[in-house]
């Protein structure tokens, strides 16, 4: 019986039975077809038709014209002129100020403390009800290079403002699924070695700026002895943060141990200059219904999902080779 | 004395380094001239774009990487659109000749004390440049043996925190200035000591608090001495200096939450203004309705400049999101016609009058507008100065046909009505 007549059966029990039978037959046919295909492949050997690539959101992505080609001279010039270039020219050493929204609850406080452990040369300060616009000049006079503000809602950290000092830019993120070290299972203990940074999949022009801002938070020269690695992995505009220690078991195998915390970031806006949400000039701002495409991404390039852990392992292996 | 001497040597060094920094011409780019749009970028490049092929070329080449090359403002020298003046962040001005394919520095004195370059305007041999610390300079520039000579004509002190300056092409002696806590002022170049008009702040708001004065963008109204301004609080105001009233004649409070960073009056229009904000919203404001009539979609970042085409009903906007967008103000769906990605943030724009919409119509997949419609619109736009007489004749012919049709149908209806009435009676 075809699926076309099925909805016309008015008895629910009968209809369900027919549907079950239909599903069974369909499945059978699929399995047979697969068998047949495999046999054909075996018989034909090298001449077999190529395997079909499954459709994923990533490989059906709408092409973005702003995809960065690092060899483009104009983009090189643009990057050399941007506000993060002193860090990449090794003229500044990062010094980070971490603060929260007013009257933080327990989780936000401990989240900040863990961030301080992750980011070397960072300081957690109590907000004391101060305006951000008053904090920024003070931070600049004390040679801070970045300011991180963790916002919370109902005791749960839900937002992050990342402001590069002294001349901006300012990025505003939505923060999701923040997991403290305590909430994770089988975590290792953090050390004070400078971590390696793994900025992955930030490939459009906006993504490159965000990637540069994030890598600005960490010191230039990682201490490889500590084997600590901090990952910012961008997938479909969601930025996943993970913190691991790796260990080479032998020439082939690498083991990973998570050190925590975990969180996910999603960009809301990128603004020129230091924090000024009232009169600032926005380089990019998230707009509802700005495009109704689910397959349109602002920051990253296509990649197949294979699990974060796997990917980090692969990356580490590539770096080591 | 010693201090002054050291200062002198400092300026000489500066000038020497400036000579090293001079941009050179990219000859290849000039082969594709004239371009539809010219754009000045943060990276220091002057770009020419073709909207139809979505391609762009750099007109200049830069040797060293420096933020001082950032182009803050651009203007045509005259209506024939053969010469472009560009103002850089550090205050140096360059003259790009499109027909002669050369770039010449304009020798105008400036120093770091004058702040950041804000705007440049030119009229005949006069160049007007404005700086953020309130200094407006008018120089007469003459060409001598392919070198430019300049002579300071007038120096105006327009008050601190200057944000905008504009020159009136219809009354060439008047310019306007405005800024943060620096109300709109209109100056006469021949009498630069006192402004001929200075605006008065609007009345206190409903809480009896003073409304802050912060003019972010101002422009002279089309072929008149009226002035339209946009503020950081997203007000759009029309001032009329010919009346004794110093407060705005029309004050529109738009619902935008960020400052108005770009403003342009629609030429040949019935009181229509397009305004762009720092958060990337783009609105069409009708001054008679005193409200926002239309929103345009597709701009991702803050709008830096808006330019209308002098004849065709189209406008282009530049944005910090590194794109140029072209819009038709009358399309009901209000989506962009086309966009070009230019690799770096764009500060200013020039729209060539040689551009015609037939190039971009191909890109018009989504909208219902047909070529006929657009041609009709162009034909019906009044004050069509650039067309030849023969063209206008053709246009009138085409118009006649349309009108007679309409008349025909309407007259028929009227006849029918009359007949019905007669029957009834």
From TrEMBL, chain A:
Coiled coil: none annotated. Residues 23-49 have a biased composition (Basic and acidic residues). Residues 94-276 form the Brix domain. It holds the Pfam family Brix. GO terms for biological process: maturation of 5.8S rRNA; maturation of LSU-rRNA. SUPFAM superfamilies: Class II aaRS ABD-related (SSF52954). InterPro entries: Brix (IPR007109), IMP4/RPF1 (IPR044281). One of its GO terms (cellular component) is preribosome, large subunit precursor. This is Ribosome production factor 1. Residues 23-56 are annotated as: Disordered. It comes from Plakobranchus ocellatus.
Automatic annotation (TrEMBL), chain B:
One of its GO terms (cellular component) is preribosome, large subunit precursor. InterPro entries: WD40/YVTN_repeat-like_dom_sf, WD40_repeat_dom_sf, WD40_rpt, WDR74/Nsa1. Transmembrane segments: none annotated. GO terms for biological process: ribosomal large subunit biogenesis. It comes from the Eukaryota. This is WD repeat-containing protein 74-like. The lineage of its organism: Eukaryota, Metazoa, Spiralia, Lophotrochozoa, Mollusca.
């Amino acid at each position: 019986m075809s699926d076309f007549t099925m909805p016309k059966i008015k008895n629910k029990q009968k209809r369900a039975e027919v549907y079950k039978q239909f599903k069974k037959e369909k499945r059978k046919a699929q399995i047979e077809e697969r068998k047949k295909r495999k046999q054909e492949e075996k018989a034909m050997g090298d001449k077999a038709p190529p395997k079909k690539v499954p459709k994923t959101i990533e490989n059906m992505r709408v092409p973005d014209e702003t995809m960065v080609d690092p060899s483009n001279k104009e983009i090189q010039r643009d990057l050399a002129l941007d506000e993060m270039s002193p860090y990449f020219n090794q003229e500044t050493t990062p010094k980070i100020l971490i603060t929260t929204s007013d009257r933080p609850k327990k989780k936000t406080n401990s989240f900040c403390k863990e961030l301080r452990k992750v980011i070397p040369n960072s300081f957690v300060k109590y907000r004391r009800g101060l305006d951000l616009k008053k904090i920024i000049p003070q931070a600049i006079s004390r040679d801070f290079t970045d300011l991180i503000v963790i916002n919370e809602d109902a005791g749960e950290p839900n937002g992050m403002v990342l402001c590069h000092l002294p001349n901006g830019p300012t990025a505003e993120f939505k923060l999701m699924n923040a997991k403290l070290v305590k909430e994770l299972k089988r975590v290792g203990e953090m050390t004070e070695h400078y971590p390696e940074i793994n900025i992955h999949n930030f490939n459009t022009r906006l993504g490159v700026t965000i990637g540069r801002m994030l890598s600005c938070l960490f010191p230039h020269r990682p201490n490889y002895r500590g084997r600590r690695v901090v990952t910012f992995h961008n997938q479909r505009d969601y930025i996943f943060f993970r913190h691991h220690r790796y260990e080479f078991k032998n020439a082939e195998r690498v083991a990973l141990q998570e050190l925590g915390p975990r969180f996910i970031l999603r960009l809301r806006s990128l603004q020129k200059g230091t924090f000024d949400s009232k009169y600032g000039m926005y380089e990019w701002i998230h707009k509802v219904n700005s495009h109704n495409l689910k397959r349109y991404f602002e920051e990253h390039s296509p990649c197949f999902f294979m699990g974060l852990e796997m990917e980090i392992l692969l990356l580490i292996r590539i770096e080591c080779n | 004395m010693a201090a002054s001497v050291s200062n002198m040597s400092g300026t000489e060094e500066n000038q020497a380094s400036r000579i090293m920094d001079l941009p050179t011409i990219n000859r290849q780019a000039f082969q594709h001239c004239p371009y539809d749009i010219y754009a000045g970028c943060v990276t220091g490049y002057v770009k020419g774009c073709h909207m139809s092929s979505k391609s762009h070329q750099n007109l200049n080449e830069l040797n060293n990487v420096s933020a001082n090359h950032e182009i803050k403002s651009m203007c045509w020298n005259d209506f024939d659109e053969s010469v472009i003046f560009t103002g850089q962040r550090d205050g140096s001005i360059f003259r790009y000749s499109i027909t002669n394919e050369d770039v010449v520095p304009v020798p105008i004195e400036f120093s770091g004390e004058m702040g950041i370059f804000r705007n440049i305007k030119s009229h005949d041999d006069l160049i007007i440049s404005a700086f953020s610390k309130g200094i407006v300079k008018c120089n007469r520039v003459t060409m001598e043996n392919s070198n430019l000579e300049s002579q300071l004509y007038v120096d105006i002190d327009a008050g601190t925190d200057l944000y905008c300056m504009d020159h009136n092409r219809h009354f060439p002696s008047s310019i306007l200035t405005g800024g943060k806590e620096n109300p709109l002022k209109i100056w006469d170049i021949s009498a630069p000591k006192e402004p001929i008009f200075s605006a008065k702040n609007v009345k206190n708001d409903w809480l009896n608090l003073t409304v802050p004065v912060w003019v972010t963008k101002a422009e002279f109204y089309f072929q008149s001495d009226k002035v339209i301004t946009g503020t950081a609080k997203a007000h759009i105001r029309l001032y009329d200096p010919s009346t004794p009233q110093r407060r705005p004649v029309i004050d529109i409070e738009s619902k935008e939450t960020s400052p108005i960073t770009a403003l342009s009056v629609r030429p040949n229009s019935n009181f229509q203004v397009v305004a762009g904000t720092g958060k990337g919203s783009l609105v069409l404001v009708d001054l008679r309705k005193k409200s926002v009539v239309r929103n345009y979609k597709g701009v991702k970042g803050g709008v830096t400049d808006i330019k209308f085409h002098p004849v065709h009903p189209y406008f282009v906007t530049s944005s910090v999101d590194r794109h140029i967008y072209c819009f038709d103000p009358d399309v009901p769906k209000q989506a962009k016609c086309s966009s070009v990605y230019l690799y770096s943030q764009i500060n200013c724009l020039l729209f060539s009058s040689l551009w015609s919409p037939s190039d971009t119509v191909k890109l018009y997949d989504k909208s219902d507008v047909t070529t006929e419609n657009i041609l009709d619109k162009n034909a019906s736009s009044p004050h069509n100065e650039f067309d030849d007489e023969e063209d206008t004749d053709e246009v009138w012919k085409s118009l006649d046909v349309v009108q007679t049709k309409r008349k025909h149908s309407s007259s028929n209806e009227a006849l029918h009505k009359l007949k019905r009435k007669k029957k009834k009676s």
